Amino acid sequence: MHGHRARAEGPGHGAGGHGRGRAAGRRPGCRRRRAGAGVRVRVPASTANLGPGFDTLGLALGLYDEVEVLVTGSGLKVEVIDAGAGPMDDVPTDERHLVVRALRRAAEHLGLDVPGLHLRCHNAIPHARGLGSSAAAVVSGVAAAYALAGRELDGEALRLAAGFEGHADNAAASLFGGFVIAWADGGRFAAQRLDPHPAIRPVVAVPTMRSSTEATRGLLPETVPHADAAHNAGRAALAVLALTQRPDLLLAATEDRLHQEYRAPAYPASTRLVTALRSQGVAAAVSGAGPTVLALTTDGILPAGMDVEGFDVTELAVDTAGVQVASA
Ligand SMILES: Nc1ncnc2c1ncn2[C@@H]1O[C@H](COP(=O)(O)OP(=O)(O)O)[C@@H](O)[C@H]1O
Ligand SMILES: N[C@@H](CCOP(=O)(O)O)C(=O)O
Which GO terms describe its molecular function (predicted)? Predict the structure, then answer.
């Protein structure tokens, strides 16, 4: 399943979405999925904002979580396997598990009755680092529900997934792959996918420290100076051109004044690395809400002499396919 294109039309589903708490009951017209049905989902990580495109721009990355979903007769079993993400001590294995919540909400939306569930989650995307692990988890749950219902992913899938976090940049990238522009009209999320320029080679510097997106969103001011808003509007527009056609413009196109400096106290080492890379001409930004540092290079490496102690530096491919689902 791939190549889906988000649509801007259709009814929206916000974070308070419909059907909450009804998953256990079987409603009239609900289609029961037989025990034994199963799907396997592979979902890419993502990097959001890309500097100036706060809550708007996203890029899918070639680092994947995989989830095996088996429909059972009753109950819930969640197995969480470290496939490179590190310790999973922040993940509950009951109904609060993010993949389970997303799957249940999407199943409810699709009129699908899932009597019991067994999940095996192979997690490679590190949590709370700014690589979209939570959006990837939500997208995998939504994609699993769509596949179990025999439905193709559509714009409603994006609205369901984005409704969990209230912004769609990561979710759209994980759903559709490639480079995405996401927006919301009164809570109705939509996205447009674009093909990133093939010369772009993202490098990520991932620190061991975690930083929750919710916490660093709390550092943002209610209002920003008009000049900063104007600056970011221009740079975000330029970023669309740079990401798709003109990688030579990436340094100017990744300059941000809306969110990074406010979040800087949460991760000083990442901020220092972004500044050092930019001073060497590398198009660097904080990835998502941080603390990972993203460098959009064309050679797949960082300049010599950078202080990357405490960071795990890796080149990641751009994922162009988005979430993939197969029968298990
Ligand atoms: N694969 C997953 N399965 C279950 N929960 C997850 C998964 N990935 C992320 N989460 C939840 O989301 C939190 C991280 O979300 P967030 O702070 O938005 O960071 P990120 O930048 O990684 O998305 C984790 O602490 C965990 O509670
Ligand atoms: N636009 C969001 C992106 C959050 O990304 P994450 O990978 O850190 O969850 C923000 O900047 O808050």
Answer: ATP binding; homoserine kinase activity
Spacing, Cα 215 to ligand 2 middle (Å): 11
Q: Are 67 and 140 in contact (CB under 8 A)?
A: yes
321 is in an annotated binding site: no
Domains of the chain and CATH, by start: 31-194+318-327 (3.30.230.10), 201-315 (3.30.70.890)
Packed helices 155-165 and 98-110: angle between N→C axes, nearest 10 degrees: 140
Side-by-side strand order, sheet with 311-315? 283-286, 293-297, 201-207, 311-315
Cis before 291? omega within 30: yes
pLDDT digits (tens, 9 = 90+) for 97-131: 999 999 999 999 999 999 999 999 999 999 999 99
The CA-atom distances, in angstroms, between 226 and each of 124, 223, 232, 258, 295 are: 40, 9, 10, 10, 28
Q: Exposure string (b/e) for 39-62, b if CB count within 10 Å is 16 or more?
A: bbbbbbbbbbbbbbbbbbbbbbbe
Read off the tokens for 261. 């400096």
ipTM of the complex model: 0.98
Cα(130) to ligand 2 centroid in Å equals 6
The model carries a pTM of 0.91
Which residues surround ligand 1 with Cβ inside 6 Å? 65, 90-91, 97-99, 121, 123, 127-135, 137, 212-213, 288
Three-class SS state of 185: strand
128 marked as part of a ligand binding site: yes
Which token pair is 318?
Answer: 């751009």
